[in-house]
Amino acid sequence: MEKELLLSICIPTYNRADIVEDSVNRFLNIFKKCDWIEIVVNDNCSTDGTMERLSSIKDDKLHLYRNESNIRYLNLIECHKKARGKFTLLIADEDELIVDNLDEIKEQLRSCNDVGVFLMNTLYENGKMYRYRPFHVFRKNTEETYLKVYNQLAYTSGIIYNREILLKMLKRYENNFIKIDAYSVFPHTMMGVCCVMDGDYAPLRGIRVVRVDKDAYKDKRDLIIGGKYADGIDGRMVIAKGWIDLFNLLEIDNVKKGRLMNEPLFVWLNFFKRFYKEIQEYKGSIYMEMFPELYTEYRKYDYEKWKSVLYNGYCQLTGLIHKYKADDNEKDIDIYESAYKEVSEWLEEQQKIN
After folding, report:
1. What is the DSSP track for 293-350?
2. I need a labelling partner for 160 at 20 to 30 A (CA). Which of 109, 112, 190, 220 fits?
């Protein structure tokens, strides 16, 4: 009788032959006795001999695929389509896994048929905690669960999807998602949000992921969204609009949908404060050095310019929310205005300090 394949470790890669080869060999060693795990590598048409290097590794657990052309961020999704496991673990090609208890992992994957998304703890290389898994199971299709997934799945590695649910959701929504600019930056998060429509959100114990930063963004195009620098205030506006568009697409009740649309507005307002401080303190994103002209431009902004950016962003996001929410009530409007007022007053205080 054929063993049940419980987990596919999915590794999307592009032009990082040395890194992905090391990762594959490491995972094959960790899971060498696990006949319930496979490793799937999807190469995004690399030109550095990635496939040749990986093809020299002889192991039945390893399954290699190569796109005929570079499909950018869609390669991340393609991995899951090629997988065969009950669950699929997404991991960046440079990141590492620490296994504490294989039996515990196996039992969770075998028995948790109602889970749409698992998340494991994520560490920095120095051992400090980067992201905690959820502390308990969050039931499917609740406002709380959607918001948990939206806020916790920003980083790619360590997310485990129920493959059956994921493929069903991709079939239902993918053609619409690819029209949303933010999908190119957060396809993994958006897939997670969709999966908890039909499945619970749960912690996966017995395993941790280590976030290893090895210059993932060699191509400037990977940091551009909707024509804007993704980690700048304008790029985050594109992302916020994309999330509002996505929540509008979901086939959930209108009250729940309406509340979810509010969250990207609040996230953008909080990002505005952080971004303003980074620019004033010369502490831009580590990737800002790839766009020195933008950093110079932001440094020229005076108080009136920042005030205008804040107001225009607020109007754009609330305008989009109002467009989708025909029943927008006074309570919601009060919440929007209160949040905007708080940031506006904060900006005024910063101006006095500076």
Report:
1. HHHHHHHT--HHHHHHHHHHHHHHHHHHHHHH-TT--HHHHHHHHHHHHHHHHHHHHH
2. 220
| Mean of the per-residue pLDDT values of the chain | 91
Q: How many angstroms separate the CA atoms of 30 and 211, rounded?
A: 17
pLDDT of residue 354: 66
Q: What are the distances in angstroms from CA 225 to CA 140, 248, 252, 282, 344?
A: 30, 20, 27, 23, 26
All residue ranges of the chain with pLDDT < 50 are 1
- Domains (range + CATH), the chain: 7-211 (3.90.550.10), 221-353 (no CATH)
Q: What is the pLDDT of residues 222-280, one digit of tens each?
A: 677 777 877 889 999 999 999 999 999 999 888 788 889 999 999 999 999 999 998 88
Give which of 47, 51, 49 is closest to 63, Cα–Cα: 51
Amino acid of residue 102: L
C-alpha 248/C-alpha 172 separation (Å) is: 14
The per-residue pLDDT for 1 is 45
- CA-based torsion, 160, 165, 168, 174: positive or negative: negative
CB–CB of 42/79 below 8 Å?
Answer: yes
> Which of 242, 226, 222 is closest to 176 using CA atoms?
242
Both tokens of residue 38? Answer: 């496979």
pLDDT in tens, 10-35: 999 999 999 999 999 999 999 999 99
Helix, strand, coil share of the chain (percent; to 5): 50, 15, 30
- Are the C-beta atoms of residues 193 and 146 closer than 8 Å to each other? yes
